[in-house]
Amino acid sequence: MARTSKKANRRHPLATVVLIAIGLAFTGGGYALFTSTATANTDTASSQTTVDEGSKLFASNCATCHGMNLQGTAAGPSLLGVGAASVDFQVGTGRMPLAMQGPQAMQKPAQFTADQTAALAAYVASLSPGPAVPTDDQLTNTGNATNGGELFRINCAMCHNVAGAGGALTEGKFAPELTGVESKYIYEAMLTGPQNMPVFNDHNITPEDKRDIITYLKYLQNNPSPGGFDLGNLGPVAEGLFIWIFGIGAVVAMTIWLTAKSN
């Protein structure tokens, strides 16, 4: 009887291992929960700090034209709904703040640092959400350049030229050259439609197609013209003018020379 009771009270050999495993699970889970909460609180505090910094920058540099509540004024349009992408494009390329009134905002050296630009974008987006700044995976140059070239010729070449060399528009406006432009700004321009450019949202041109267009433009930038002298990539008008002035001119000059020599 005593032997049976002793056997019943004996601890299983794996009981210690199970207890240690349970203890580790509770300890690890509690640590992970605490760490995640602390990180989330830090991120939230950091985001709020960024928005507060953007609010100060906006009030001192942008509110005169765009209004304290982004409602716009007679001197500048409303920014409600433009999102972080539009602010990042306009401020990052130096188009804003405006140097002077004109047919369109001119690109110039940026007046704010990258962190200040991000703060302004975060502030505007916090008041009225809109298109976000594209992520790194949307800006890779590993898309389909063939598809990108077709999309560019259909949607963009009538203003920017088939080679992205830019072109004149009406009333002193122009489509800028796209050579050397950062991928981020090309994407944001398609997404937000700055100034005279139409908006190509993700329903018009998908993020994958935008990446293909960027790939095509970067291919043109990194590969010289296979035909030799490209005449500035200005298209058939420039090529036709070149032929008329130099080609036909050379033929006429040669004809006059041969006639004069025969006489």
TrEMBL record:
Its EC number is 7.1.1.8. It is a multi-pass membrane protein. Residues 49-128, 143-221 form the Cytochrome c domain. Its main location: membrane. GO terms for molecular function: heme binding; iron ion binding; lyase activity; quinol-cytochrome-c reductase activity. One of its GO terms (cellular component) is plasma membrane. The cytochrome bc1 complex is composed of a cytochrome b (QcrB), the Rieske iron-sulfur protein (QcrA) and a diheme cytochrome c (QcrC) subunit. This is Cytochrome bc1 complex cytochrome c subunit.
